[in-house]
Amino acid sequence: MVIALILVWIFFQYATGGIFLEARNFSNLMRQTAVTGVLAIGMLMVIVTGQIDLSVGSVVGLAGGVAAAAASQAWLGWGLIPSLAAAVIVGLVIGLAHGLLVAYANIPAFIVTLGGLLVWRGVIKGVSRGNTIPIELAGFKAIGQCYLHPVAGYAIAAGIVAAIAWFTIQRNRTRERYGAAGQSTAIVAAKVLLPSIAVLGFTYALNSYTGVPAPVIILLAVALLGAFMTQNTTFGRYLYAIGGNADAARLSGISIRRRLRCFA
């Protein structure tokens, strides 16, 4: 996938006469695709369990519409924190409802989420009557539009590099602790060095324009949290076990229904 991405970038760099990878365009692309990246991290946890969620776009639209309506002075005017909390609660309730139908009613996730795709899209269209919801709240807009100071961007990049090093070293030590063959120092160094160079280069490119966009920081935070959950927690390993062989996972004592009701 990385090679395919690089080839796509090279093609568009050539097709646009060198504009595609300019700092400004690169920054705008990252800001616009941050939402998709956050959704992809959540979808990863669904797919590794052998399930699917077709309703994710409609749920995001509904949750975003609820947040906008709660923040807008023309609608509810609740303020920033209550508005974001309302969106999170909407997403949690819908996810739980889907999960319960899949886990306890034994309805395939494809059917449940296909219905959700149509239902939740209709709900937000009905609530908003198809009109744009105006937002005057500066803090709400800043979440998707503001940029960090270059110094702050480099500081966050340094923190990410430190996290990459820590996770890589700890994973190698864990392998050795449980009797598995540990990786050589050169391999561990390469696993730390290559992503670190990518992170620093990425930060430099974004700082060359106006700084790292706030949505990108949110994406990175969610990505690190998702990586920690899937690779360093019992819960995450259970998800992979269920997706690999559900029957073996069940016979090993893993409650499959308990996990599916959260991620279906």
Outline the structure in words.
This protein has 264 residues and is mainly α. The chain has a domain of 145 residues. Helices cover 77% and strands 0% of the residues. It has 12 helices and no strands. Helix 2 packs parallel to helix 9 and helix 4 packs across helix 12. The chain is globular and about 60 Å long.
Gist?
This protein is mainly α and 264 residues long. It has helices spanning 2-15, 23-47, 56-71, 80-103, 109-128, 138-145, 150-177, 185-207, 214-232, 234-244, 246-251, 256-263. It contains twelve helices and no strands.
DSSP summary: helix tally: 12
The low-confidence runs, each spanning 5 or more residues with pLDDT under 50, are none
- Main beta sheet: strand number and arrangement? none
From the alpha-carbon coordinates, what is the Rg to the nearest angstrom? 21 Å
Helix share, percent: over 70%
**Beta strand count:** 0
Order of helices and strands: HHHHHHHHHHHH
* Large-scale geometry: globular
Measured by DSSP, the beta-strand proportion falls in under 5%
Average per-residue pLDDT, rounded, comes to: 87
Q: Termini, distance in Å? A: 26 Å
The computed structural class is: mainly alpha
